Every structure is written in structure tokens, then in C-alpha cells.
Automatic annotation (TrEMBL):
Residues 130-174, 399-433 form a coiled coil. It is found in: Cell membrane; Cytoplasm, Cell cortex; Cytoplasm, Cytoskeleton; Cytoplasmic vesicle. SUPFAM superfamilies: BAR/IMD domain-like, SH3-domain. Belongs to the FNBP1 family. It is a peripheral membrane protein. Residues 471-485 have a biased composition (Basic and acidic residues). PANTHER family: FCH AND DOUBLE SH3 DOMAINS PROTEIN, FORMIN-BINDING PROTEIN 1-LIKE. InterPro entries: AH/BAR_dom_sf, F_BAR_dom, FCH_dom, FNBP1L_F-BAR, FNBP1L_SH3, HR1_CIP4_FNBP1L, HR1_rho-bd, HR1_TOCA. This is Formin-binding protein 1-like. Residues 392-469 form the REM-1 domain.
């Protein structure tokens, strides 16, 4: 099948068809261009979407911690990679498909124009041959008519008797001339006709088939190029499918990484205060004043017995508390406890519970003027003044903050140590090879690095002391806690020097009015009492000189008895086996308390 033999007479049709093919090629190129713009806009919109929902990362506190948030941010990262693959698709289409199509369309137009010009030239040459042949034919026809007329004129004069011989000879010469001219035109016409037939045969069997064959090959190459572009269009998409599949698999893995239990634990770790729940409120029996009308002796007996119980309680507290450097605080009245209750007997032998006058009076005052004893955590809300030791935070949060700071300081210390080691090596190189540099020029930098190392070590030591204090309190809170039936009236907010918690830093829990004579009565017994029992033991982590009065010197690794815990001031009272007592820094020792030890001084 060839256009030259099958379509020898369809030059105009082939002209239109080849022009349609180029137009279709350019139309497909326009389609690819619009698809590229769609891919680019899609990738741009995806990147803007990812940027809109990605965290700003302005501070470490805003970093995602929950597994659901981390999974979402991983999905955003995968989506950002997916957008990058859409950009790759657009670039591949622009380079491999659209650019190639535009170059090929330009070359195709040039080639088509050249082939059509050759076809038109061949057609024009054939038309010129035909015109020459037609002109010779017409001239031959005209000469034949003229010769026929000359013959008729000669025959008429030859038959006319009146015609002269000269007229006959003249007519005969004219006939011969016309006949000769007709013969010449006949020969010329025959030659032109033979030439035209040869050119026409060459035109339709050689020139035109060759031109049409070139046009056919050009159109077939156009079709092949379209097929290649179709394949390249699909390959541009197919090449990124493995990477896109990895992006989608990453999204699936991110979805599978969500752990609701871990998120719940993070909520606990983030907001856990470390405080113990409040204890139960006691039953406050306000009907005891009824019994006072029954027996006046009961009230007096209650006063006496209450006084005895309070004295014992005072003695017990005096034995349980020894103060730093021997300074004894003013005696504080104990809070209302079940010890204020006792049993009284009536003359007829029956027994009933009574209150002393002071506890009853105290309870009535508490009803009128006392604040609610429900624990308040308003002081722990964010926005308060941030202290260096994070003492404004709850124990658990304070421990986490201190641990984070210690980790950061350790990383900085490691950097400074590495820098110091590098400077020392450089100094050694300079000392061995003076031409490389002056060793003295590194001395200021070494001094600065050493100062930084000392400063960081001091900061780490200070923060570790605070951390040990917090861990000691949170770890032994269950052992140091009083019975909930006794201390449920104590408000939980700030730890006072007495070990109780109050909402106001300047206020302490006040008990019912007591006679201070009981305290002064047992001062001598407090000072001359037997040594306090050991409530645990400790091991010295660091050596301590103990130059100050009331402190106890110790060596690293030395084991001491604990006779009084740290009350929040950073000091623990300890005793050696030889009986020597004193205070040591809590952060310098590793404390081990004995559970249920008698005589232990505990604080909430």
C-alpha cells in the first residue's frame, strides 16, 4: 500500500491530511502542557497544605509528643514527599513529552512544506509540457486548415478557363508553401506530444509516487512519535508509582503507630502533680454540748483528761523534732485530732464520748470563719513566676523539668569537654611544630573552655541536688504521710516548715487554743532525752567537710544512721555508730528508709 500508486490524483487531499496531522500533534502538545500545569498547581497546593498544618517548631515545648500527633505529622511529611513526586511527574512530562512534541512539530512543518513544494513544482512542469504540446497541436491544426484552403483555391483557378497561367502558378506555389508548413507543424506537434507523454508518465509513475511516499513516511513518523509520547506520558506517571507507594505505606505505618495507651500515659506524665489525694474528713459531732447539761463534772473531767492527752502529744512531738543548729521554734498547737476525744463515765456507770471545751470551741470557729479544706491547685497553673529550681511546679513536673535541664547541661558539658580535648591536641601539635602556630594563642580559649566546664559542673551539681530532693520527697511520700484520719484537716498547697501544707505561704494550720505551760514543763525532758531511734540508713555519695556548727563531716562511701528526715530545707540529720550526730546535705547521700520504723519523724 502506497500513497504514490493509490492516491496519485489526491494531492490536495494529502495536503489537507498532512496539515490535520500536524494540527492534531499540536493539540496533543497543548493537552500535555495543561496537564503539566495541573500537576504543578496540585503539587504547589499540596505543599501549601502541608505547610499550613505543620507545627511551627518555635520551641521545644510545642513539639508533638502524642503518638496521634506524631502520626499526623509523619503523614504530612509523606504527603510533602508525594507532592514532590507530582513535581517530578510534571518535570518529566515537560522534558520528555511536551518539549519533544514541540520540537518535532516544528520539524514536521518544515518537512511537509518542502515535500509539497516539490509536488507543486512537478505539477507545474507537467502543465508546462502540456501547454507546449497543446500549442504545437493548435498550430498544426491551423496550418492544416490554411493548406486545405490553398488547395481549394488552386483547384478552382486550375479549372477556371479564364484564369491566367500566372494566377495558376501563384496558387500552386501557395499550396506547396502551406503544405510544407503543415508538415513541419505536424512534426513539431508529434515531437511535443511524445515529450509530453514521457513527462506525464514520469510525473505519475516516478516523481509523484516519490513525493507521496515521503509524505506518507512523514505522516507515519508523526503517528509513531505520538505513540512514543503517549507511552512517555504514561511512563512519567509509572516511574513515580514505587515512591508514591512508599509514601502511602508510610502513611499506613504512621496510622498503625498510634498507641492510645501511650498517649494516655503521656497525659499522666504531663499533668501529674505528685500530690497525694486529700484524706477523709472526720465526723465532727456538734451535739456533745447536750451532755454538758447532764453532768457538770463531765466538763471538768474532760478538761483535765484533755490536758493530759495534749501534754503527751506535746511530749511526743517534742521527742520527734530536733531543729537545725539547736534552735527550737516556738511551740505550735497541734491540729484537732481524734486524741481530743475520750470516754467519760457517768455516776451510774454508763460511758459516752465527749469533747474538751477547746476542741468544740475550735470546731465552731472553723465553721464560722474557716476556709474550705479542699486542696487547691490554683497556684500550680501556668503563667506563674518561673523559679530557677522549678519549686513553683508540682513535684512530678518539677522532677521532669529538672531532669530535662540536667540532660541539656550534660550535653553542653560533653561539647565543652570535646572542645577542650581538641584544643589540647592542637596545642600539642603547635608545641611539636611551632611553624604551624603559636601554642600561647590557644590559652585564652582553653581558659574560657575550662571556666565553662566548671560552670556547667556546678549547674549540674546544683540541679542534681534539687532533683535528689524532689525524688526523696516523692519516693518516700507514702512513708512520710501521716494517717489520713489524723491529718485530713490539713490543706494541701504549700509545704510549711512544720511539714503541713497551706494555701497561704504566710499561714499555718492552727489547732485549738492550748496552754503553753505544758511545753515549758517538758523542755528539760526534751533536752535530756535519750538519743532518737534510727529510721533508716544512708550512704555518702560525696565527701562533706562539716565545718559549720551542727553539721556532721563524712567521707565518700561512709554509712550513717538516719534519725530525722529532710524537712524541705535540704538537710538530713544523721548519726555515726559512735553516737556523733549532726546534719548532712540531703543531696550528698543515698537514703534508705525503714518502713514502719518507730520514732520516725515524718511530714506530708
Amino acid at each position: 500500500m502506497s500513497w504514490g500508486t493509490e492516491l496519485w490524483d489526491q494531492f490536495d487531499s494529502l495536503d489537507k491530511h498532512t496539515q490535520w496531522g500536524i494540527d492534531f500533534l499540536e493539540r496533543y502538545a497543548k493537552f500535555v502542557k495543561e496537564r503539566i500545569e495541573i500537576e504543578q498547581n496540585y503539587a504547589k497546593q499540596l505543599r501549601n497544605l502541608v505547610k499550613k498544618y505543620c507545627p511551627k517548631r518555635s520551641s521545644k515545648d510545642e513539639e508533638p509528643r502524642f503518638t496521634s500527633c506524631i502520626a499526623f505529622f509523619n503523614i504530612l511529611n509523606e504527603l510533602n514527599d508525594y507532592a514532590g513526586q507530582r513535581e517530578v511527574v510534571a518535570e518529566e512530562m515537560a522534558h520528555r513529552v511536551y518539549g519533544e512534541l514541540m520540537r518535532y512539530a516544528h520539524d514536521l512543518k518544515t518537512e511537509r512544506k518542502m515535500h509539497l513544494q516539490e509536488g507543486r513544482k512537478a505539477q507545474q512542469y507537467l502543465d508546462m509540457c502540456w501547454k507546449q504540446m497543446d500549442n504545437s497541436k493548435k498550430k498544426f491544426e491551423r496550418e492544416c486548415r490554411e493548406a486545405e484552403k490553398a488547395q481549394q483555391s488552386y483547384e478552382r483557378l486550375d479549372n477556371d478557363t479564364n484564369a491566367t497561367k500566372a494566377d495558376v502558378e501563384k496558387a500552386k506555389q501557395q499550396l506547396n508553401l502551406r503544405t510544407h508548413m503543415a508538415d513541419e507543424n505536424k512534426n513539431e506537434y508529434a515531437a511535443q506530444l511524445q515529450n509530453f507523454n514521457g513527462e506525464q508518465h514520469k510525473h505519475f509513475y516516478v516523481v509523484i509516487p516519490q513525493i507521496y511516499k515521503q509524505l506518507q513516511e512523514m505522516d507515519e513518523r508523526r503517528t509513531i512519535k505520538l505513540s512514543e509520547c503517549y507511552r512517555g506520558f504514561a511512563d512519567s506517571e509509572r516511574k513515580v508509582i514505587p515512591i508514591i507507594s512508599k509514601c502511602l505505606e508510610g502513611m499506613i505505618l504512621a496510622a498503625k503507630s498510634v498507641d492510645e495507651r501511650r498517649d494516655s500515659q503521656m497525659v499522666v506524665d504531663s499533668f501529674k502533680s505528685g500530690f497525694e489525694p486529700p484524706g477523709d474528713f472526720p465526723f465532727e459531732d456538734y451535739s456533745q454540748h447536750i451532755y454538758r447539761t447532764i453532768s457538770d463534772g463531765t466538763i471538768s473531767a474532760s478538761k483535765q483528761e484533755s490536758g493530759k492527752v495534749d501534754a503527751k502529744t506535746t511530749v511526743g512531738k517534742a521527742k520527734g523534732k530536733l531543729w537545725l543548729f539547736g534552735k527550737k521554734p516556738k511551740p505550735q498547737s497541734p491540729p484537732l485530732t481524734p486524741t481530743s476525744l475520750f470516754t467519760s463515765s457517768t455516776p451510774n456507770g454508763s460511758q459516752f464520748l465527749t469533747f474538751s471545751i477547746e476542741p468544740v470551741h475550735y470546731c465552731m470557729n472553723e465553721i464560722k470563719t474557716g476556709k474550705p479544706r479542699i486542696p487547691s491547685f490554683r497556684s500550680l497553673k501556668r503563667g506563674g513566676p518561673a523559679l530557677e529550681d522549678f519549686s513553683h511546679l508540682p513535684p512530678e513536673q518539677r522532677r521532669k523539668k529538672l531532669q530535662q535541664r540536667i540532660d541539656e547541661l550534660n550535653r553542653e558539658l560533653q561539647k565543652e569537654s570535646d572542645q577542650k580535648e581538641a584544643l589540647n591536641k592542637m596545642k600539642d601539635v603547635y608545641e611539636k611544630n611551632p611553624q604551624m602556630g603559636d601554642p600561647g594563642s590557644l590559652q585564652p580559649k582553653l581558659a574560657e573552655t575550662m571556666n565553662n566546664i566548671d560552670r556547667l559542673r556546678m549547674e549540674i551539681h546544683k540541679n542534681e541536688a534539687w532533683l535528689s530532693e524532689v525524688e526523696g520527697k516523692t519516693g518516700g511520700r507514702g512513708d512520710r504521710r501521716h494517717s489520713s484520719d489524723i491529718n485530713h484537716l490539713v490543706t494541701q498547697g504549700r509545704e510549711s516548715p512544720e511539714g503541713s501544707y497551706t494555701d497561704d505561704a504566710n499561714q499555718e494550720v492552727r489547732g485549738p487554743p492550748q496552754q503553753h505551760g505544758h511545753h515549758s514543763e517538758f523542755d528539760d525532758e526534751f533536752e535530756d532525752d535519750d538519743p532518737l531511734p534510727a529510721i533508716g540508713h544512708c550512704k555518702a555519695i560525696y565527701p562533706f567537710d562539716g565545718h559549720n556548727e551542727g553539721t556532721l563531716a563524712m567521707k565518700e562511701g561512709e554509712v550513717l544512721y538516719i534519725i530525722e528526715e529532710d524537712k524541705g530545707d535540704g538537710w538530713t540529720r544523721a548519726r555515726r555508730q559512735n553516737g556523733e550526730e549532726g546534719y548532712v546535705p540531703t543531696s550528698y547521700i543515698d537514703v534508705t528508709l525503714e518502713k514502719n520504723s518507730k520514732g520516725a519523724v515524718t511530714y506530708i
